[in-house]
Amino acid sequence: MDARSEVNESTAVRELDAVIIGAGFSGLYANHKLRDTLGLDVAVIEAGTDVGGTWYWNRYPGARCDSESYMYCFAFDRDLMQEWEWSGKYPEQPEILRYLNHVADRFDLRRNMQFNTRVTAAHFDEQTNRWDVETDAGDRFRCRYLITGIGCLSSGQIPDFPGRDSFEGESYHTGSWPHEGVDFAGKRVAVIGTGSSGVQSIPVIAAEADHLHVFQRTPQYMVPARHGNIDKSALDEIKKDYDAIYEKARHSIGGFPYDVTDRSALSVDDAERQAIFEKAWEAGGFRFTFDSFSDLRTDLEANETAAEFIRSKIRQTVRDPEVAEKLVPIDHPFGSKRTLIDTNYFETYNRDNVTLVDINTDPIVEITKTGIRTEQQQFDFDVIVYATGFDAMTGSFNKIDIRGRQGEELKEKWAAGPLTYLGLTVAGFPNLFMITGPGSPSVLTNMPIAIEQHVDLVTDTIVHLRDEGLELIEADADAEGAWVEHVNEVAKPTMFMHANSWYLGANVPGKPRVFMPYAGGMGAYRERCEQIVANDYEGFHFTKASVAANS
Ligand code: N01
After folding, report:
1. Which of 356, 386, 416 is the C-terminal boundary of a domain?
2. Ligand 1 centroid vs 425 CA: distance in angstroms?
3. 172 in the same domain as 119
4. Would you say residue 191 has pLDDT above 90?
5. Contact 32 CB / ligand 1 (< 6 Å)
6. Ligand 1 and 173: CB distance under 6 A
7. Could you give the C-alpha distances from 146 to 53, 136, 464, 472, in angstroms and in order?
8. Rounded Cα–Cα distance for residues 455 and 446 (Å)
9. Given 332, 352, 386, which residue is the final one in a domain?
């Protein structure tokens, strides 16, 4: 008996078919499929007080999704798709949260959910072939299947600046924003970080605060969102064709139904290239890349044409040339970090109440009682906003004590980078399914498309186990090794390898530098999964129920 079971000896163990961790998009859909379609006995454990996942926590001002709203939703239910009316081109956080609440109500998904509870440990027991799951509320579950729907970007990362806890004003991380909101009116505010969260929140905070200082480490490429209200008649047209649109997205690179050009940026002259970029710029959002040229992702010379185009836009927008130069990205290619989609970001630096601090030339030395001290200046603030990102993809796994066969710790197994088969399973961790885990397309795609593909695959796999009288499915170590190698190979020729990004773990000191998502595209990944299933679950092995029942 280990220390853990001694501690909770008195708590009754609840036997279940499945435990799902998280009640965001993944947990909601997995609950619906496993509970309602398969009739399994399921518990969903969620740290928040309600459903929503990412969209429950990320309530910072201006929070909005970069996927167009008609594509940022579930496609598993036609009526649900037809009845929900999005109000804007891009869905804003409150609207996405309303949508997810609507889904939870419509399918009665809350009745087997436990909120305000974190899973602290999940150990695979080789005697019973079950997962023993514990929570911080003292619950103990024993289940056959363990499904993680813990998100890729849910473990907030606040840099360990000296004196961080000494600040006497208010401080917030964008990924854990107070539900009652933050009143910036009349306040001196600092935002540290200019990734997606910073770039969305900065214009909104600037409009409210007395003065805003933005602390920037890496200047970023951005494409205008062209956000606005969605035209009802356009949405109705889309809905008429929804099945075909989604089918196209499912087999696309990024989980979007956009046509992707096959034109090289180097195949046209300067004038034509400029005209094509201008047109794609007008379309805005991710369409800028899809509509313009095919080789921006893979050819540095082609990429530089896009980079230079965006730099010229920054210089045209920002009135003070010195500030503009600080905002111009030069040390990494376009698209090597997550492409940012902005609304009035660069225009914000034309406001009198906004100051840019380039922490490359004037680094942050410490957080003080009253603000931030850089090498050259002392700033006093009422509020510090950390828009400093996440310990992405693996951070949330590492917070749970997950152990597979022979007590092997997942955290230990992943010490040099995540090892998975298909980004869904791990050798030595039977019946564990990680929805959008590291090594799957996940964050490089439109997430709901990736989530539905994984949940459907898990559902089909459980049906297969049931129909064949099998108790366990487990990835082969060889298949896992080959998959990890494939993930690396596919990423190698892309721009992703040319920047310090969270995709590579570069934002977390000490984290191994490994490219974590699968860059081969949603369509190719889906086909690979289908082939594997058609080849009798190639790369997996099974344990029969009779052999397994040895407890
Ligand atoms: O985090 P980030 P995020 N000192 O890691 C800086 C998704 N998302 O929360 O670039 C000073 O991108 C860091 O600087 P640098 C989306 O996938 C989606 O903004 O590392 N600065 C960077 O500027 C996104 O990519 C949506 O040099 C430090 C910033 O903090 C992902 O979430 C909206 C620092 C962190 O940027 C993460 O976005 C929001 C330090 N020690 C998020 N450490 C939409 O769909 C970090 N920084 C719209």
Report:
1. 386
2. 27
3. no
4. yes
5. no
6. no
7. 18, 17, 17, 12
8. 15
9. 386
- Same domain (yes/no): 129, 237: no
The boundaries of the domain holding residue 469 are 3-155+393-550
- Is any atom of ligand 1 closer than 6 Å to the C-beta of 494? no
338 lines ligand 1 (CB under 6 A): yes
Count how many domains the chain has.
Answer: 2
> Which band of pLDDT confidence, cut at 50, 70 and 90, is reported for residue 9?
low
Cα 338 to ligand 1 centre (Å): 9
Backbone angles phi, psi at 188, to 5 degrees: -95, 120
Q: Give yes or no: residues 458 and 314 share one domain.
A: no
Joined tokens for residue 404: 């597979």
Instruction: Give pLDDT tens digits for 83-103.
Output: 999 999 999 999 999 999 999
Query: Which tens digits make up the pLDDT trace of 307-356?
Result: 999 999 999 999 999 999 999 999 999 999 999 999 999 999 999 999 99
For residues 282 and 403, state if they share a domain.
no
Say whether both 150 and 206 belong to one domain.
Answer: no
Nearest CA to ligand 1 atom 8: 196
Q: Is the pLDDT of residue 548 over 60?
A: no
Nearest of 465, 461, 469 to residue 532 by alpha carbon: 461
Closest C-alpha to ligand 1, atom 18? 196
Residue 14 CA to residue 21 CA, distance in Å, equals: 16
CATH number at residue 528: 3.50.50.60
Pocket test for ligand 1, best of 199, 217, 358, 375 (most atoms within 8 A of CB): 217
Q: Ligand 1 centre from 371 Cα, in Å?
A: 21
Task: Specify whether 365 is located in the same domain as 471.
Answer: no
| pLDDT (tens digit per residue) in 113-124 | 999 999 999 999
Question: What is the distance in A from the centroid of ligand 1 to the CA of 310?
Answer: 19
Measure the CA–CA gap between 119 and 148, rounded to whole angstroms: 10
16 lines ligand 1 (CB under 6 A): no
Has residue 5 got a pLDDT over 70? no
pLDDT of 545 = 82
Is there a single domain that holds both residue 140 and residue 168? no
